Amino acid sequence: MSQSHEILFKTLADPTRRAIFERLCRDGDQTVAALTARAGVSQPAVSKHLGVLKQAGLVRDRHEGRNTHYSAELGALAPLIDWTNQMAGFWQSRFDNLEDLLKRMDQ
Amino acid sequence: MSQSHEILFKTLADPTRRAIFERLCRDGDQTVAALTARAGVSQPAVSKHLGVLKQAGLVRDRHEGRNTHYSAELGALAPLIDWTNQMAGFWQSRFDNLEDLLKRMDQ
DNA sequence: TTTTCCAATAGCCAGCGAGTTATCGATTGT
DNA sequence: ACAATCGATAACTCGCTGGCTATTGGAAAA
């Protein structure tokens, strides 16, 4: 279940791509031109990043005339949150087991 | 503040490396040999991954005779959690602004 | 002390991926 | 119809990184 954190980690590992996603989270709907203006890389590079983000389900695109607007899909972060919770859960679980053991040794 | 999610994303993007970290979270303290046995890659590869994980603060090492034990440093995930919360926060904040606007238009 | 074992380092290679420029398709404005 | 603009695609380069084998440094066992 929820093996999909794989693609999220890979997608968000790149700083430029993550910056684009962050900007969409902060400021909402943006055209490719607007994103390119602040990305520090060329328009084709931005388009490529947006393609990867879309593939990962992190953004949606909306065509409006000759402009394309992108927006963040916040729900897509869920598997990432699940994963960290799971790691924390493993940790806690091992801690509980240790507690049990100590309790049993104590009595 | 907390720009350190950068290194976390990069470190956890690799599946082999993430699997090693997950194993340390699940099962706690492990020797390099034990980790290598299940990693599907060579011992030097595992050592390199452990080095990267250590650099990111995700694991600790403990020397015991000629064995080296590694363990997960769960607290290191905090910047990752902070980042996701921040993204969620941006989202919520924009939503609130929209609500305010609608309220003002309504009255 | 010699041999064996564990883990780290060195050195190398191959593939991937992020960047570039050039171009194309589509839509809008003249 | 023609020009201009927007964004995606093509084709290519180049650096990084994850993998390997071989070797080294230490610590335990013989």
Automatic annotation (TrEMBL), chains A, B:
<protein>
    <submittedName>
        <fullName>Transcriptional regulator, ArsR family</fullName>
    </submittedName>
</protein>
<dbReference type="InterPro" id="IPR001845">
    <property type="entry name" value="HTH_ArsR_DNA-bd_dom"/>
</dbReference>
<dbReference type="InterPro" id="IPR011991">
    <property type="entry name" value="ArsR-like_HTH"/>
</dbReference>
<dbReference type="GO" id="GO:0003700">
    <property type="term" value="F:DNA-binding transcription factor activity"/>
</dbReference>
<dbReference type="InterPro" id="IPR036390">
    <property type="entry name" value="WH_DNA-bd_sf"/>
</dbReference>
<feature type="domain" description="HTH arsR-type">
    <location>
        <begin position="1"/>
        <end position="92"/>
    </location>
</feature>
<dbReference type="InterPro" id="IPR036388">
    <property type="entry name" value="WH-like_DNA-bd_sf"/>
</dbReference>
<dbReference type="Pfam" id="PF12840">
    <property type="entry name" value="HTH_20"/>
</dbReference>
